Amino acid sequence: MDIAQNILLTIMTAATPLLIAAIGELVVERSGVLNLGVEGMMVIGAVCGFAATALTGSPWVGMLAAIAAGAFFSLLFGVLTLSLAANQVATGLSLTLLGLGLSGMIGESFVGTAGVKLGSIHIPVLTEIPLVGRLVFGQDPIFYISLMLTGGVAWFLFRTRAGLTLRAIGDNHASAHALGINVLKVRYLAVMFGGACAGLAGAHLSLVYTPQWVENMTAGRGWIALALVVFASWRPWRVLGGAYLFGAVSIGQLHAQALGFGIPSQFLSALPYVATIVVLVIISRDRRLTLMNTPASLGQAFVPDR
Amino acid sequence: MKKIVFALAATLAVTAVTSALAEDKYKACFIYVGSKTDGGWTQAHEAGREYAQEKLGDKVETVALENVPEGPDAERAIERFARSGCGIIFTTSFGFMDPTIAVAAKFPDVKFEHATGYKTAPNVTTYNSRFYEGRYIIGQIAGKMSKTGVAGYIASFPIPEVVMGINGFLTGARSVNPDFKLKVVWVNSWFDAGKEADAAKALIDQGVDIITQHTDSTGPMQVAEERGIKAFGQAFDQIKAGPTAQLTAIEDTWGPYYEKQIAAAMDGSWKGGESTWDGLKDGILSMAPYTNMPDDVKAMAEETQKKIESGELHPFTGPINKQDGTVWLKDGEVSDDGTLLGMNFYVEGVDDKLPQ
């Protein structure tokens, strides 16, 4: 029966980077900023995490470096779109382009270097419980961080005053400004949080998922994270559900292929996306709820003196 | 969205590359589907380009453009190269076939070389490597090394090249273990380390104890190393990713071919419309050192390699049945190249339905 546990572990590993990046982007979008540069920040996190690990020998240092690199990189987006009020869509796209190119350059000398894996935790007795031991007590640290992040963000957004402020800015920045809230400061913090999360998601790829550095190793996961935010109608726990659903269908289709059911593989490969779209359609049937959750000033530049 | 990004990136890169070119040297240009440092397919081509550059020295300027997606975007990238004064252009992925033919028609004076395709033109030559020879050898090793008698194959796209590899591998394995089975997982990507690793995990969870791949990253090798099973490197020696897992690797050694063709293009002896399909004996592919296996298996692999190089053994020699049990090759019959290049069926023992 260990195969069930193995499959679940693989699913969670596949879902974790999506979840972390999406949670970060959720906070950014809740503050009314659309950062399409998730893929770029993620790949920067992956390369910096790997490089720092290779240089210091400690994957923990690598993880922190990835978080810092992601946050720092997102600051570039922040300066352009918040202070200089540049177009967010264009800036986000260029952030992705820059990230992909820059990461290739930074990582050039690290290609083929043996990676150090951020090991899974191991608690005597607890981890060895059959069927669920490794699922609950034996995963990598970033997995636990991802759950804490989800819970923390849900609590912050909907149970704290600061979270209310952030959502208010996302819904109507002009009103929030009129109330004396420093819109740009909050948005800067949100953007940097998103960058840090994307960096951490990248670190998961290069330190846990496949401990190595190869160019473009994010392979479009940043875009999936972006889609998950919309899929989840900007609600943290739904992001978790979406990421795990996507992970489950992605891994499930590989198993279905290996079992040799004879279902066309092209169909199976498309299945994660099909499943996501179907759920999205079902969720958005309630138009009122969707509108309520969509940050009303998403993507609009804010210039205080207007 | 991703496509747009890549298209933009490709355009930018071409501009940067072409403006930096010297004017008087002969230009040989390369289009890669992946990154120069992917540790697999593209890195092997890059090594070939470096080899040719070194051999031909100052007379030639070689330029490469990496991460060009297959499909319409490729056409734009190839055309930019053709316009920028490249004398000969190597397009190094199957999916560049139609774009190469399309651009070649517009630039009759530029010479084109397309890897692994089957369409030629007066100024388009194709070149390929008989990878199935290597796959037959690794199949034999798998047949000897596997305890469960089931191997896992991580495949990219259902094109003849890949199907031929699967059949070559299984035919090799069945030559030493007639009951050998093969599970195939298609990831529908050439390069996605995470997805390839996931496919490897899925296969291992379902009981295969040896994996091989026709995708370009070292993800599966790393999983094999972690789970303590054996695997084969793809296109490039991947021993660094799997020091105790890699049995051998099929290495692509394009360098001598590139050197020869560029030299021919420069002195005017280059011919279009040709199809080169070289194998182990020509040195266009070679086997990485046989490691992590008992001596008798190693001896067998070396023996087989010698026989293939001398022409004594053709991997696709009958009796071989198709997947449904009907006869493909009668006893002693050898497959012709045409059938191999258009291969669209599995041989007996593949536990998968071929995507059509």
TrEMBL record, chain A:
GO cellular component: plasma membrane
Keywords, ordered alphabetically: Cell membrane, Membrane, Transmembrane, Transmembrane helix
Main localization category: membrane
Membrane topology qualifier: Multi-pass membrane protein
Cited CDD domains: TM_PBP1_transp_TpRbsC_like
Record localization: Cell membrane
One MF term in the entry's GO annotations: transmembrane transporter activity
Membrane-spanning segments: 6-28, 40-57, 63-85, 97-121, 141-158, 188-207, 213-232, 239-259, 265-283
One Pfam family from the record: BPD_transp_2
Superkingdom to which the source organism belongs: Bacteria
PANTHER family in alphabetical order: ABC TRANSPORTER PERMEASE PROTEIN (PTHR43370:SF2), SUGAR ABC TRANSPORTER INTEGRAL MEMBRANE PROTEIN-RELATED (PTHR43370)
UniProt name for this protein: Nucleoside ABC transporter membrane protein
Native species: Hoeflea marina
Upper classification of the organism: Bacteria, Pseudomonadati, Pseudomonadota, Alphaproteobacteria, Hyphomicrobiales
TrEMBL record, chain B:
Segment forming the signal sequence: 1-22
Identification of the protein by name: Nucleoside-binding protein
A Gene Ontology cellular-component term: plasma membrane
Keywords per UniProt: Signal
Domain ABC transporter substrate-binding protein PnrA-like stretches: 27-308
InterPro entries: ABC-Purine-Binding, PnrA-like
Superkingdom of origin: Bacteria
